[in-house]
Amino acid sequence: MTIHRPTIDRPMPAGQVGRSVPRLEARQKVTGRADYVHNLVVPRMLYCKVVRSTVPHGRILSIDTSAAEALEGVYRVVTADDIRTVVPNPFYGPAFHDQPVLAVEKVRHVGEPVVAVLAEDPYVAAEAAQLVTVEYEPMEAVFDEIEAMTSTAVVHEVLKPAGTFPDLKHLVGRRDTNIALDYRLRRGDVDAAFAAADHVFAHEFKTQQVMHTPLEPMVSLAEPGEDTLTIHTASQSPSFVRIEIARLLGWPENRVRVKVPHLGGGFGAKLYIKLEALVACLALLVRRPVKWSLTMEEQFYTITKHASTFRIESAVDKEGRVTGRRCEVFWNGGAYADIGPRVTQKSGFTAPGPYDIDNVSIDSYALYTNRPPAGALRGFGIPQLVWAYESHTDLIARGLGLDPVAFRRKNLLRDGRPQATGTPVRDAAIEGVLDDIAARMAWETPFDRGSGPVKRGRGIAVGFKASIAPTTSVAIVNVAADGSANLYLSTVDMGQGSDTAMAQIVAETLTLRTEDVKVVHPDTDVTPYDMATLGSRSTFHAGNAVKLAAEHARDQIAALAASLGLPPGSNYAPADLFKKKYGMQAGNIIGVGTYIPEYKSPAPETGLSDNVTPFWMVGGTGVEIEVDTETGHVRILRMVNACDLGRPLNPKIVETQISGAALMQLGFTMFENMDLDDGQVTNASLADYKIPGMHDVPDQMESVITEAEQKSGPYGAKGVGESATFGVSPAIANAIHDAVGVRLTEMPLTPQAVFRALREAELNSSTTSA
Amino acid sequence: MRGFELVHPGSLADAIGLLDTDDDTVRPFSGGTALMLMMKTGVFRPSRLVHLGRIGDAYSEITASPAGGLRIGAMATLSALEHSPEVIRVAPVVARAMTRLANVRVRNVACVGGNLAHGDPHMDLPPVLAALGGSVSVAGPQGTRDVAVEKLFSGYYETVLGRGELITDVVLPSQRGWSSAYLKCTTRSADDWPALGVAVSLRIEGGAISEARVVVSAATEILTRLTTAESALTGAAADESTFARACEAAAAEAEMVEDARGSADYKTQLLRVYLRRALTQAVQDGAVS
């Protein structure tokens, strides 16, 4: 394996932004000194273990806790009735208030928490959990997203959207449906475009349910105070946890304190409420600290990535221009909505892809099923969409006998042109990303197609994503009397390197060394609001807030200098100013920055808006592969991932974000798959659910930072955590088609699937020739 | 799982004595790599584990016999096999198979005896040892006996080992003149459990195959010798057309099991391809001298 590193640091004037500063926490992590909730123990703490549903859909007839309660060392066994003494209406969720803290009256997926057992010894709690018996009356279940559209099995009797989202209001009180959200977009005259088309192409693509697999499983610990509650949690969204727990308890926000140290990976799994609601209720119920740590197996029943079906249809004129596109996307959200409806809408509106198409219709449906819930996972639905529209794009090019890159160039969205929503695309290097990949792969030159049973092929794909909007970030920069600075921020460094990047922004603005800026980890009693660490929003949103806070501090330092009679532009150190002002090393300067970008909500009927996102992320992938036609095995010889991330704050971290995202998507593309049998995950362990290892890394991997600038971003930067996931799946499917002439439309692209397709193609051609 | 008792017998006889019980929550423990997975998932809840690490160094020795065979102590680790000069000289196919078996951390603690006695059909070592004509020495309350590796397995995670019986050694007959190869195939990540393992051992004299052993594992419920494939090879020239006939015979003979790694039909195709490649590789690598 070789990893091509073209890094050229392009530092800003103070030499901090644009420099590949080594991660601030790297030494702590490799020496085992970094803090994780996993290692946290507090006095009088109880461990929680939950009893989980064994049926996908059923009414709870009875719960017998007597044997568990009788086990020596068990402190208490808790059911939903007990939870209700703390929280009368114990339902939570970011989009819908549909998820019970413990199952109430019925269960909606295998693995749903039904009973909680508390003990001082976690092994006693685990053993006691096995002794609880729950009797269910099985109900008809639905697992497939297409069947859920019309099935008689209904997961939730009535929809309960949270009040916070205007586009969910029409769903309040809707009954007997599994459609949690029906998002639509209509632009131009699609029917007319299809009627006038020279060619029409229609395809259906599917993706499978997979899991984030953070190597640190979810963990939360709640400590009750006199009239307060402190929650230590491995969460990507401490501010949301505080607000939602306060809502559940009916408390003011300031009585709930949420603290987050380091995370062992998040990828969208640790967002919103996961374990926090139950540990909060338990801690208040028994007035003792309660810790709940999931096993790897339990994570498969907690949050996953949406399986999906995407029907896409294009009208193309005789010049090879796409004139109309119909998109129907069905998202398998599982038993609880979590953030699924946001995926359906926020990602749904980019379903036609980064192409300039005048006539577009999109219908995107969030569906309840009796599978484990699905939510955000690195890419927030975009990889499912790009998988479909870039496979489709390739098929159109092949159908018309056009080069796939040339066909894309003809149809790409260019600067200033309106995207499907009507929002003009700005600062989005879609063509730059495509050009960079094509140039790296020498697309115009002849390609070795292999010999014998091993055939070679290459493929390319490009996708884009709108940032989640409108969201707010607040930052505080505290300059101490010796001139050193602390940054107070609720952005969570879950391994992506945000602490380092944010410290670089402070250092650049205040002319400090990045290594001298201390980042205070999220503690909602101390650090200000940040919507959440998700959707690649932190660099842009939190980064802008941090820059504003640092500028605010810088301006106050200048004002202090002026108040001390120093002429503007004179050379002084902040420490001297403090000493001059206060007569000794004393005082602080506090800079505060709040950032919320402008945004216009899409019109409910048409889905249109002229300002739907503050920025666009662009990512593309090119691969060269070989296919063993005797077995269907695909080997990736070379993978090029290019992204538009504006100007890189820290080029080296950016490159690892690019390669990491691409490898994660590689696993989802090639083999990761939650095997379900009647709603039960039959491979819920690292022994049986395989994620990529070192031997799965392509022989040659290249991470490319496409030349770009996000003018509204901090120092020209924007997010990149997800961008390299976009193109991976379709690039590989396109390369397989290129190598052996078969098209796979369902992920994962297993050797067996490739082999079957080859065999079918062989049979078809022999039938045709006969 | 709450507590269990861990005992450390100081001799083989003591270990056998401790294991001579009908209580199936009492089990031997050597490297523990497989047992710990079962304990963590709650599949196995022991009352007592009998640790074999202190029964004596003799049980982890690897010695070459003057005749060209090998004796491997059951407590030898897989990395000891991987790096042993005797193994590399006498049975290079064994050392090569180790490099893609699990990972270095597992190989450093997992032991040969446990690897066999676990009875998991997805293991790499059993088919290799079976193809080499290996047998195990077994000691138990009734004394000792020898069992051919190919006869050791009686079902999925089941062996013919009786109450209180322990594998003490693996014995390989002379490998001189034998050409051997082992190939495995994964269908998910590269480090997944194999979808198929195929081991071959051929004696080629004057361009013709005089003896052949073909063993398939992972795709079948238990490790299986493919005798019709062996018949197709025996007495025939070691060439492509013979191999093709043997592969078709193997495909017709082996009873494949469908699982998450592939359908039975697909695994049959893998066997066709991988057996041919294994035979070709064995010929290419040449005979042990």
UniProtKB/TrEMBL annotation, chain B:
Domain of life: Bacteria
Keywords from the UniProt entry: FAD, Flavoprotein, Oxidoreductase
Domain FAD-binding PCMH-type: residue ranges: 1-177
Alphabetized SMART domains for the sequence: CO_deh_flav_C
Keyword Transmembrane belongs to the record: no
Listed Gene3D superfamilies: 3.30.465.10, CO dehydrogenase flavoprotein, C-terminal domain, Uridine Diphospho-n-acetylenolpyruvylglucosamine Reductase, domain 2
GO molecular function, one term: oxidoreductase activity
Pfam families membership: CO_deh_flav_C (PF03450), FAD_binding_5 (PF00941)
Cited InterPro entries: CO_DH_flav_C, CO_DH_flav_C_dom_sf, Diverse_Substr_Oxidored, FAD-bd_PCMH, FAD-bd_PCMH-like_sf, FAD-bd_PCMH_sub1, FAD-bd_PCMH_sub2, Mopterin_DH_FAD-bd
Protein name (Swiss-Prot/TrEMBL): Molybdopterin dehydrogenase
Organism whose genome encodes this protein: Rhodoplanes roseus
